[in-house]
Amino acid sequence: MERRDFIRGATAVTLPLALSGYSAKAMGLSPLLESLAVASAAADRYLVLIQLAGGNDGINTVIPLDQMSEYNRIRSNIALPENRVLKLTNATGLHPSMVGMKSLFDAGNLAVIQGVAYPNSNFSHFRSTDIWMSGADFNEYLGTGWAGRYLDSQFPNYPVGYPSREMPDPLAIQISATPSLTLKGTSTPMGVNVQDPAAFLRLVQGSAVDGFDTAPNTDAGKQIAYIRQIQGQSETYASVIKSAYDKAKNLATYTPMNVNPLADQLAIVARLIAGGLKTRVYLVTLGGFDTHAQQVSMADRTLGTHATLLARLSEGIASFQQDLKLNRVDNKVVGMTFSEFGRRPGSNVSSGTDHGTSAPVFVFGSAIKGGVLNGNPSLTNLNGGNLQMQTDFRQIYASILKQWFATDSTEYKAILGKDYNTLPLISTASTSVNDTQTVMNATTLQLQNYPNPVSSTTTIEYVLPASSNVRLTIFDGLGGVITSLEEQQASGTHRVAFNAESLAAGTYLYRLQTERGVASGKMIVAR
């Protein structure tokens, strides 16, 4: 909907408002419209998960500058020179290859969460990966993933009835050879699977995805057939994926194709988001972090296998974030890294590190609160020779579910199985109608429409305290979108003329989403 068809607006600065922003609960709407007031904020927010497969060495990723003597002693053959470390704070620094992520940290767009693990860590790659992906306890076996359960709660009965008018796009997209437990719902994977960037390009260029010959009628063949079936779900959404991809361009410079596999994946994700795809969760993978031997170069310890991996991670994330900003969608995206475990604090005789417990997690995006959470893990106060846990990884999941996706306390407890203390991660957090705060503080954003009730044309008026990207959406009584407008607007009072002559009598909801939060109002159409 173009602005001239929807809006006849002008800015002003003097007109006082009789009404301010409402929470959905205060408006006394139906449960569906109540949920729209908050959930619609989450509907325009996306999460990008980056799996660091193999178990990343956290101590050589985030270096404890306040413990350099002990660091050099226990890592004598892989310790990084202090004068090459990228300093974040007086106590903490990044690996020298992570220049891009250092820039994000300096801009306030990177949070470093120290000491992330779970109680009674398991050192098996497979089992620990399942724990991280499912959100299970160490002695609990779940067949669903934490993000899959979230999507299950938002899109009941999937895949029956999907694609739909309200959700025409894939719920989730994973770029990997096999479906991830992370995205597994109660009865089915909650998204589509694309094998790799090359397979994705074949998809958007209109070619069939390779590998759909008949699998042998054996136990192994049945597993292969299942994997192919899940991969083939991408063809159901091929047209909408291709459409979104064609609508946008990568505006940032990425490492050339096939040099950085993570950058290849993130470039695809950025273009799909910029192209308007409503896919809620993306999952990409960078492998190779099982660095038992030759982790560093003997000629220069800032180089080597681990340095190359961290450079790919840093370059990929930095280019991705720049791409989102240039496409003006960076306020809609939060990303996080995860790995099945960290490494032991001391190195081994092979100039590598063995399976350990906690490691740092990175959360990035324009909407997050940057900084270092928790102090450096102690290199001397150990638990069975391993680092102590400071943060349960499910606290991060709970923080994202509550602060980014606006799930209420009851909902995220059901998704994660129990209550977890959240972390101060999101600076522009959504708020649930079931929590104590309103959707938007009335002193921050004011909103009303007049006349109300309306028979023909009404004016929606609001005050922006600061310049912001604005989306104004009008919903019918069933939650369907009637029309929406999105554009950058200056601070001040704005007025939008809306013609309601074609609408049936009843109650309608309008929602204003800005970079500072969400406000909503109720419009009565009378005949």
Architecture overview:
By secondary structure, the chain is α/β, with parallel strands linked by helices. It has helices at residues 3-6, 24-27, 31-43, 68-74, 99-106, 125-134, 146-154, 197-204, 219-232, 238-247, 261-274, 305-326, 393-404, 409-416; strands at 11-12, 46-52, 62-64, 86-87, 92-94, 110-117, 172-175, 192-194, 281-286, 333-338, 359-364, 371-373, 391-392, 446-450, 457-464, 468-475, 481-489, 492-499, 506-514, 517-525. It has two domains: 3-41 and 436-525, Immunoglobulin-like, CATH 2.60.40.1930; 46-416, Alkaline Phosphatase, subunit A (3-Layer(aba) Sandwich). Strands 2, 6, 7, 8, 9, 10, 11, 12 and 13 form a nine-stranded mixed sheet that branches. The protein has a four-stranded antiparallel sheet with strand order 1-18-15-14, with no helix packed on it. Strands 17-16-19-20 form a four-stranded antiparallel sheet, covered by helices on one side. The longest helix has 22 residues, at 305-326. The two termini are 26 Å apart. Residues 1-40, 208-215, 229-233 and 429-444 have low confidence and may be disordered.
Q: In CATH terms, what is the fold-level topology of the largest domain?
A: Alkaline Phosphatase, subunit A
C-alpha termini separation: 26 Å
Q: What top-tier CATH class of the largest domain fits best?
A: Alpha Beta
Could you name the ranges where pLDDT drops below 50 across 5 or more consecutive residues? 1-40, 208-215, 229-233, 429-444
What proportion of the residues form beta strands (DSSP E)? 15-25%
Characterize the largest beta sheet: strand count, sense, and whether it forms a barrel. 9 strands, mixed
Q: Which structural class should the secondary elements be placed in?
A: alpha/beta
Radius of gyration from the alpha-carbon trace, in angstroms: 24 Å
> CATH architecture of the largest domain, please?
3-Layer(aba) Sandwich
Task: Tally the beta strands.
Answer: 20
Shape: globular
